[in-house]
Request: fold
Amino acid sequence: MFSDSYLSVTTVADRQPSDSVGRLSKRVESGPVGGARAEVVICGAGIAGIAAAYHLTARRGIAGVVVVDERPALSLTSDKSAESYRNWWPGPGDAMVALMNRSIDLMEDLARESGNVFLMNRRGYLFATAQPEQVERYVRAAQEAATLGAGPVRVHRSPGTDYQPAPGAGFEAQPTGSDVIVDPDVIRRHFPYLAPDTVALLHARRCGWFSGQQLGMYMLERAREKGVRLIEGRVDRVETAGGRVTGVVVGGRDGTRTIATPRFVNAAGPFVRDVGRLLGIDLPVFCERHAKVAFHDTLGVVPRHAPMMIWTDPVRLPWTDDERAELREVEALQHLVDEMPAGVHGRPEGGGDSPVMLGVWTYDVAPTEARFPVEFDPAYAEIVLRGLTRPLPGLAAYLSRFPKCIVDGGYYTKTRENRFLCGPLPVEGAYVLGGLSGYGMMSSNGAADLLADYIAERPLPPYAPAFHLDRYQDPTYRAQLDTWGDSGQL
Ligand SMILES: Cc1cc2nc3c(=O)[nH]c(=O)nc-3n(C[C@H](O)[C@H](O)[C@H](O)COP(=O)(O)OP(=O)(O)OC[C@H]3O[C@@H](n4cnc5c(N)ncnc54)[C@H](O)[C@@H]3O)c2cc1C
Reply:
């Protein structure tokens, strides 16, 4: 499978010690690639490429892995994430839940071995509604999630219930599955900061957040210890002969060089389609622009230990009568007066004394070209903050004196049904790890583990076909796409 000649020239260990996870972030090489030969060349040092390098080397024992990126590691989409994770995914089938459970297992292993250097917590995702008709829908959703493998359901209908809130830090010894809370006293007792008309909560438990940069840098460091080399440059061409990958042409400050390799992994994030074209393959992905907003909750409206909160009802933004009248006069702004889509969500960010609160609302998405720097709707911060006042009425205190907000984001690179692409491509020796959408930080370990199984020719997990490009060749699957339903995007 892996030739000795490759192994002998490519185990050029890059073992410079480092005492800090962050210090390596900008350390890329621009000199000649050791031996100009590699066992595997990965295009992209986002979380996907780094996780792939880590799993190939540290967990599969494959030497001679080179990662090529024209930007510093983890600086494009992987720098923009809200860094949340969940095993809470819809069907059809259990592939997403199984993959995420595997990914979370792997992240927990990494958290344990590293002393939780990336601060993984297990606060859960708290879905909330004020619509009584949603109550039984929550129960059904929780039951469905249980059948897909997310864990058991506990329904809390009376004040004496044994609902256990999540701790602010850590992830050990926590329940899986979900708690559906419909008793008003229990809701008020544990979540007094939520809207008083909240009638039901669904607390999905194998969910939380972590530092994506720290996770990525920890994996990069482990991969470097196993000889992975991070090369600065742009993958301009993938060479093939007889239908097989033979080399990768990298352009950079020092000119162009070719790395001879039998394997190429396309982990190019929002450019995965462009890099696919270098192999003559049109990958079925598109990009959507997504942003998050950060502001200081100086009044402490949201307790620092709060979970991720997602309001599942449509929202009408709070405006004064005058503001409403003004907005109605501008056609492009009228939608801000109408009912806006469900799904505004937010959470506290940062430990210790951090006052930062994050908010996200996917109220307006359309496929677009990936262009950098990314530009966002100048009104996004205000719209999100106003939207968040529905589940968290205390935030209305900021509307008269608007806090400084930072809006940041990037692109979700998605397939039509929002399931990523992982596995071999029609050109022998070429692989893809892309289309990680809005869940690439949480899924990267599971996805890279799957990719490493393909490359190491190990037995594949049952969920592998759900992420293989050739699923689109199956007429039954293609027909299913037309009636897919919920894609799991928040
Ligand atoms: C606003 C927002 C919020 C999000 N929130 C979450 C969240 O809460 N949880 C979660 O799990 N995920 C979240 N995501 C999604 C997550 O950030 C992405 O899925 C993930 O970062 C994608 O990683 P990637 O490695 O595929 O791409 P990237 O991080 O974009 O990396 C791709 C790399 O490829 C390089 N590259 C491309 N073409 C070439 C070339 N030809 N030559 C050399 N290098 C090349 C680029 O320079 C780049 O560094 C969010 C995303 C956004 C935008």
